[in-house]
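Final paragraph of the annual report: two paired records, presented back to back.
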Amino acid sequence: MIYGLGAAVVWGMADLTAAVTGRRIGVLSLAAISQLGGLVTVVVLVAAVRPELPVDPILLVPVASGVIAAGAFLFLYEGLTRGPIALVSPIAAGFAVVTILLSVVFLHESLTGLVLVGVATTIAGVLLASTDLRDVRTRGKTLQGGVPFAIGALVCFGFVTFLIGFAAREAGWLVTVFISRAVGTVVLVTVALVQGAPIRSVRQLTLIPAALVGVADSLGIASYSYGSSVGAVSVVVAVASTFSLIPVMGGVVLFHERPAPNQWLGVGMVMAGLVLLGIAS
């Protein structure tokens, strides 16, 4: 549980920093620079620990997770820059439900009645938070702003965390994180260069925060992966997914966001569902 909590703290700070920085330099530049910063962090950890690299087909799993992670980060950063952060981050945090369901199906981890309640509560919360019911009644609008991208991030991160947690048990947590991060970085930097993102012209005042987003994210993934390698994936991911509390407060304080009452209820239900998952696990 302590490793899941560590992941929650650094992921929360990474999301808040990404929201601020992404609005200044653009999503693709943020994605490329942050992933490079994150890769450097993992390389330093690899150099310090010197883990053995197994020659095993299991290494294809973190390769797949790296590709999916590239899409997940693009969804997340686009959602955070479009906002509101107070909705995007909690919705994306619902990835724990996808990870837990995959863990039940493929790793045969058991679900108690309380876990099922937690899953149902989280899903219902995501649905409530996704739409301002006032706009639905007056203008028929749904899934505004960054919400659709948050849902995309939810699904992608659910698969990423499951694949990393699964591979960490067989190949080791650090090897898994390194491969996944390296593949994701190559994909995102390539996309940024092809699309002509102004990476080189980014000023130092925004370059450093963008890189720190990746550093924090990598530290969070390392903490999550190590926790998954020594404990139940469902427990670690449930605790780690509470990271969205930090961006929620940041969105309200820094950007003066005011979601609709039903959306606040949805955020509360997502948090409650994740707490239930943590307690039950």
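The closing record of the year follows.
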Amino acid sequence: MRIVVAVGGNALLKRGEEPTTKNQRANAQVAGKALAPLAAEHELVISHGNGPQVGLLALQAAAYKEAEAYPLDVLGAQTEGMIGYMLEQELGNLLPDEHPLATLLTMVEVSPKDPAFENPTKFIGPVYERAEAEKLAAEKGWTVKQDGKWWRRVVPSPLPRRVFQIRPIRWLLEKGVTVICTGGGGIPTMYDEEGLLRGAEVVIDKDLASALLARQLQADLYIMATDVDGVYLDWGTPDQRRLGDVTYEDLERHDFASGSIGPKVRAACWFVEKTGGRAVIGALEQMSELVTGEAGTNVHPMPDTITKVFGLPVTYRVRP
């Protein structure tokens, strides 16, 4: 199969964990162990989150008073290289020497007229207590919002419109290369009034960008691997329950938090509706079961929709 796996930023740097190179390497090693079997058996494209990492780089850049702070598109490019390098190295330690790997810096187009510029929602950077977050917001001109019991910086998150490097990604896959690309939702890029490419001070949602990537690559399966084992209804209450198999129309009837699982649900539904393939949201540690549909929340086309699984035509009749 051709599989796109989006590894969540919190799977690479866990909530509350010190953002050290040592911790990120350890988490990349865990991700490598989960992804290597897929790379050995399938055409695999890996994307990844970068929220904690790009926020950390932004803080480091702001601390250097002698130069203007680097914009988010440049910081996004830096995180693509850094995280891609770590994942590529860990996969290289597990796969045969002859198995080719490549990390590709990937620009993704956004529109300067996207309404997201007026309503920042994308969490980046470390977590703070409320008082500290509000102090930083006043000092640096940030927008901050609550993320669970913590507070974090938020930036605009416009919709991805196009993956600029889609042709080279296809060429690499045709040569048997496992590709790491579109990290952090891709490097946000837009056309200015003169038709020239410019960076944008935003962070594109990684799951939506990866869904666009999966669609443009005609992937058979789109996996969002995170730090939870699926999508839950009534999360955080005594009645919480995980969804197993569900159609995209059933899933769209429910409301989910925009700052956490909501974008993943939206990305899954969009991919399945547009392609007739399967999307799954679940834990990185259950990767093999996510591929077979035995774990996570599996989002299917509507019943009686013909699609392909493992290259064979299948009629989905989704159980309640």
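Residues 72-94 form the longest helix (23 residues). This concludes the annual technical report; the extension proposal builds directly on these records.
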